[in-house]
Specification:
The complex is a heterodimer of chains A (379) and B (538). Chain A is mainly alpha-helical and 379 residues long. Helix content of chain A is 71%, strand content 2%. Chain A has a domain at 75-301. A two-stranded antiparallel sheet of chain A has the order 1-4. A two-stranded antiparallel ribbon of chain A has the order 2-3. Mean pLDDT of chain A is 85; it is low at 1-16. Chain B has 538 residues and is α/β, with parallel strands linked by helices. Chain B has three domains: 30-115 and 168-268, P-loop containing nucleotide triphosphate hydrolases (Rossmann fold); 281-354 and 439-531, Rossmann fold (3-Layer(aba) Sandwich); 369-436, no CATH class. In chain B, 45% of the residues are buried. Mean pLDDT of chain B is 83; it is low at 1-23 and 520-538. Classes of the chains: A mainly alpha (379), B alpha/beta (538). Chains A and B meet through α12, α13 and α17 of A and α1, α10, α11, α13 and β20 of B.
Chain lengths: 379, 538
């Protein structure tokens, strides 16, 4: 053993810095800029809009708006985005989630009211909210399994594979619905509670912005719980580590003993299962299991993931970042609604937001690249 | 690319050649004075002072990390020095980009110059400054000009004008870059490792050109690892070590050994030599293995043994490692681990049988560059570190910290992105991963490639250490000296076969080379993945 070599410094410099540095390190610089963007956006909606003679901004901070409009609007896209984040971190893409949500929506409604494919199960399970929800999630996970098998066993590029299943599952959702018509669930209050229910509705909380405390929507709570669970999955489990490793360098991950196929199949099942849950909640919100419920949602979800800082090349990204991005997009839409912009303007804004997000992330990557080449230059 | 911007920072007009030369230095000498440059955690250059004189070829030589590249980048305006100055003829130079350096007559030719793929040689040379007439680009004039300048230096044949950028060889790309420099009146020309991908003939041609430019009064900087080449070509030699200039010698007054000693800071005799060891216990036996790359390979590795695998590039050594590790498939043959026949189809199965594999290409196959040291080092033992699939953070950190310390990985923290470490430290992270697995057999494919001498020595000690602890090590290397110094036994491969086994005194450079090239004329096995690169002997 030679002792004539420099002593290793393994202590993190972060530890020696102040609490603020540690906090920034914990939140992450990317997420910090998202938070900053969120604050700016809220100020734009509530304060700056007034300077330009736009009215409606003052309604932003009201219980009615925060809980009934904003917090509910973000849930479905938010759930899809959380599942999509996992896939994008792994360096892949799942475009089919909108259609998977439609499948989940129809399956849940069918099981609930005992029609269509649900008929046979109906005698056993009809009317059970639990089984309806479970059926929607399982249907989604099975769709994910199909995606995963196509990608890993047939070796089809993930984007192409899920583009194919986007179309296929959309059609499948219609086939599942009796005569292709929506399945109504109005008669099932226990189920629609998922969308209309409120937690803490009676809490003694003072009014805000001239509206009374409304309670926290069940939908929002479900979203936050799912996001938290997936955050834990990605941060603290071997599965999460494998996802990051595969996204960063699939060959290196395989040579380090990670079973790529297994992880990828599980990942698509996870993304599908979450999309199925989103479909279930769509059924509860729209009070019908409609085969077009999920159409087009994948684009909004993917937008949010990239806005949340996930690297287009994989290996980087956080659930928290996506969560913030979902809120950011929600506030943007909500604020424009309040200020009276029509939906076309909103779409334009959202499109440019996606481009801006990716442009910023590219700039950041270029800087990181610069650091790497600087270090390489010292070799 | 190089569009002229009128708003550019202060230009440095070249002083007229007839100006009074009252100074002892030659006119046009690039004076580097007290230049220092630091990066986070590294002092890349410390107080460098050096004259680069017209009509002279000055070599920069030093190990990886000695600061050659950083110095070149400062000269080229890629970096700005933290302290110190550059000047030519009293004119202080301050570059904010390579374009400023070009304007001052300074050009650095990097190994891979920027070439536009779909554009021919003439346009590539004149890119950004295409000759115009009445706003229209005149191909006729352009071709005429380029033809004339190529003819002037005798490159009509070496660099055919009708070739497009992506049809050019490395040598031709460099020529394009040199022609770019010449056309804009270069005063100081730096060449960064120009010969690393050239054939001997191309090297000769390049040297002729470089000498001619010197005689025309250009100041030339020549950066290379090849000491003999430097002694052949250069007039003076500047030796760098750890960011400092250790010596500047006249090429005629210095020997190869002296240069090495100055570069390394110690004598070569200190270089590592393993004492042969090994036990009788066979940890790995491969019998009559056939695959797309192999034709009946048989060998064994004992516990405590370092077994070298020598051969030419393309002999099938890397593929052999990958077949054993389950990354590539075999068509027939048996693999026994600890005397038990095993069937391995995937890397994770190999790991479960106690085999570790550190691949040749760290960046492409070894590491997840965008993730941390911690995550990379624990990647192969995640399951062992987890309880109910939850990674036990504290256990992971302490386990990895132990190996990182043992291997002396120089990193500011375990959370540092691996891509931001130097090559030697990246390799150590790969090794840390495999040590953590506690394998019986460790396959190391070119573990010291692209690593500086200091880190190499550490890795040698380390391999020696591991073998002494009872691991069987399959050591693939294309560097003959290291394979001879480190191996207890050596298998030599050629064209997918093992052509010989050497031990003890019979293991000499000549013997290995003889076996590696014994059957050069026979065709490659069908389906050979890696083409036999000419000239890259061992």
């Amino acid at each position: 053993m030679s002792d004539n070599v420099t002593i290793t410094r393994t202590k993190s410099p972060v530890k020696r810095d102040g609490a603020l540095r540690r906090l920034i390190g914990f939140i992450g610089a990317d997420n910090l800029s998202l938070m900053f963007a969120l604050v700016v956006l809220v100020l734009l909606v509530t304060v700056v809009s007034g300077w330009f003679g736009l009215s409606g901004g003052n309604r932003f901070f009201s219980w009615q708006n925060l809980w009934n409009s904003l917090a509910q609007a973000i849930v479905i896209v938010g759930l899809l985005a959380v599942g999509e984040t996992v896939v994008i971190i792994a360096g892949a893409l799942d475009i089919s989630i909108g259609s998977v949500a439609s499948v989940g929506s129809v399956v849940a409604a069918s099981v609930l009211v005992g029609v269509g494919v649900g008929t046979r199960l109906a005698s056993l399970l009809a009317g059970s909210v639990f089984f309806a929800v479970a059926a929607g999630i399982i249907a989604g996970a099975l769709c994910g399994l199909i995606n995963g098998l196509i990608v890993t066993q047939l070796r089809v590029n993930p984007t192409i594979a899920t583009l194919g299943t986007l179309a296929a599952f959309a059609g499948f959702a219609f086939l599942l619905a009796p005569e292709g018509k929506p399945v109504g669930v109005l008669t099932q209050p226990a189920f629609t509670w998922l969308a209309q229910g409120r937690f803490l509705a009676d809490a003694p909380i003072p009014p805000l912005g001239g509206t009374k405390w409304t309670g926290i929507p069940v939908l929002t709570v479900i979203f936050v719980i799912v996001a938290l669970l997936i955050h834990i999955l990605m941060t603290y489990t071997d599965f999460g580590r494998a996802i990051y490793a595969i996204g960063g360098n699939a060959t290196a991950a395989r040579l380090a003993g990670i079973n790529l196929s297994r992880v990828r199949i599980l990942m698509y099942m996870l993304s599908g299962g979450i999309a199925g849950l989103a479909g279930v909640l769509l059924t509860a919100r729209t009070t019908s299991g409609n085969p077009i419920n999920g159409t087009g949602l994948e684009l909004q979800a993917i937008t949010a993931v990239f806005l949340g800082g996930a690297a287009t090349a994989g290996g980087k990204g956080t659930i928290f970042g996506t969560f913030l991005a979902v809120i950011l997009v929600g506030v943007l839409n909500n604020g424009m609604n309040l200020l009276g912009f029509n939906t076309f303007v909103q779409r334009v804004a959202l499109g440019f937001l996606l481009i801006a997000a990716v442009a910023i992330s590219q700039g950041r990557q270029a800087r990181a690249e610069h650091v790497r080449t600087r270090i390489a230059a010292q070799d | 690319m190089t569009m002229t911007s009128p708003a550019a920072a202060p230009r440095n007009p070249v002083s007229p050649p007839d100006a009074a030369a009252s100074l002892p230095e030659l006119r046009g000498t690039l004076k580097i004075r007290n230049v220092s440059k630091a990066f986070p955690n590294v002092q890349a250059l410390a107080d460098i002072s050096l004259d680069i004189r017209p009509g002279e070829i000055l070599a920069f030589i030093g190990e990886n990390g000695a600061g050659k590249s950083t110095l070149l980048k400062i000269i080229n305006g890629d970096y700005q020095p933290d302290t110190g100055t550059l000047s030519i003829d009293e004119q202080a130079l301050s570059f904010s980009s390579p374009r400023d350096a070009h304007a001052a007559g300074i050009r650095v030719i990097y190994q891979e110059p920027e070439i536009v793929p779909g554009v021919d040689v003439a346009e590539n040379i004149w890119i950004g400054e295409l000759p115009k007439r009445m706003f229209l680009f005149s191909r006729l004039r352009l071709n005429e000009q380029v033809r004339r300048s190529l003819a002037e230096y005798g490159f009509e044949n070496a660099l055919p004008m009708n070739l497009l950028g992506d049809q050019l060889s490395s040598a031709q790309r460099q020529l394009v870059e040199i022609m770019r420099a010449l056309k804009s009146g270069v005063q100081v020309l730096a060449l960064d490792e120009p010969t690393s991908s050239l054939t001997d003939e191309e090297v000769d041609r390049l040297f002729t050109l470089v000498r001619r430019l010197r005689d025309e009064g250009v100041a030339i900087i020549y950066v290379s690892h090849r000491i003999r080449e430097i002694l052949r070509l250069c007039d003076r030699i500047a030796i760098l070590r750890d960011g400092s200039l250790v010596a500047v010698k006249q090429a005629s007054e210095v020997t190869e050994a002296e240069i090495v000693r100055l570069m390394v800071g110690r004598d070569l005799s200190e270089v590592f030599q393993r004492r042969p060891a090994g036990t009788d216990h066979e940890v790995l036996r491969v019998t009559d293995l056939h695959s797309n790359w192999h034709r009946g390979v048989s060998f064994h590795i004992n516990a405590g043994e370092v077994v070298g695998f020598a051969g030419l590039v393309g002999a099938g050594r890397t593929e052999l490692a990958k077949v054993i590790f389950g990354e590539l498939t075999k068509t027939s043959g048996r693999v026994l681990v600890d005397g038990q026949e095993v069937s391995i189809h995937r890397p994770d199965e190999a790991i479960a049988k106690g085999i570790g594999f550190a691949p040749e290409d760290r960046k492409r196959e070894g590491l997840v560059l965008v993730r941390s040291v911690l995550e990379n080092a624990s990647l192969a033992i995640l399951r062992r570190l987890s309880r109910f699939h939850f990674v036990r953070g504290r256990l992971e950190r302490s386990t990895v910290a132990g190996f990182v310390e043992r291997l002396r990985v120089r990193t500011p923290s375990l959370d540092q992105e691996v891509g931001k470490l130097s090559g030697g430290n990246q390799q150590k992270v790969v090794l840390a991963r495999w040590l953590a697995v506690k394998p019986k057999i460790l396959i190391l494919d070119e573990p010291t490639r692209g690593i500086d001498v200091g880190a190499k020595a550490e890795i040698y000690h380390f391999i020696d250490d591991l073998a002494n602890q009872g691991l069987g090590i399959m050591f693939i290397s294309s560097e003959l000296p290291e394979i001879l110094r480190l191996s207890d036994r050596i298998y030599v491969m050629q064209n997918g076969r093992i052509t010989g086994e050497l031990t003890g005194a019979s293991a000499t450079e000549e013997a290995v080379l003889g076996l590696a090239m014994a059957d050069q004329l026979s065709a490659l096995p069908t389906g050979a993945a890696t083409p036999n690169r000419e000239g890259s002997i061992l």
